Amino acid sequence: MSASVAALLLFSPAAQFTHASSARHLVTAPQSTPTASPTVQRHPYRLPLAGASIADITRHFTPAMRRFGPGHRGIDLGTAWGAEVIAPHDGRVTFSGQVAGRTVLVLRHDDDLLSTLEAIDSDLAVGDLVVRGQLVGHVAAGHRCETTTSCLHWGVRTGPDRYINPLLLLGPMQARLLADVEIDDLRP
Question: Residue 95's beta-bridge partner residues?
Fold first, then answer.
């Protein structure tokens, strides 16, 4: 499987593999909305960067295999310093301050998921309510990312040490073939 196909599948939360090494076994889950899942929203989450799309993702979620193990517990969105950061969903500020030298804003959403946004300059205080799409701050200067000069990190927790891929909260997405994918690579 080419890197382009792998990247395509990262953008499609409904896509699953029956065999990890071949795109020929790609199956798409039904587009029906389960009612019992805590991550399914009537109004899905949105990317927390004004004007951003999934094309702006510079680093994807990589789950840790064990507590405190290596991984990337969120996604990074490449942008310019000072870019507007918006609330990905309705919620309440539960933390605003410094963690390991970075400015962090944590929002607890109505479904009890926690969004962690860093590095962000924000005037919001603990207890402040926010609504989906509301300006909550600006990307802080000085924080450098792996592949870009500046980025916003968005992590989502379901508990103290349980992280999920934020892309799963964005609702159904259409799969799109990328220009450098050979059609023959996708045929059975």
Answer: 106
